[in-house]
Amino acid sequence: MSQVIIYTTPTCTYCNAAKGYFKQNNIAYTEKDVTVDQIAQQDMISKSGQMGVPVIDIDGNIVVGFDQAKLKELLKL
Q: What is the CATH number of domain 4-75?
């Protein structure tokens, strides 16, 4: 099973869509809220070069935004 980390904010519509996608496909994930976790925020920026969310890390592969086709490919769904 893939290791999935999703960097989010509470008001992000695309973050909620990504989390829903993971739940729908029974994919376990770790959520890191970058509004309250400064270390997670710095980790997200260093991995992606982005300040926008969601940033999704699947086994070290970074997906910026809710790119369903890319998620499907990386998760082998």
A: 3.40.30.10
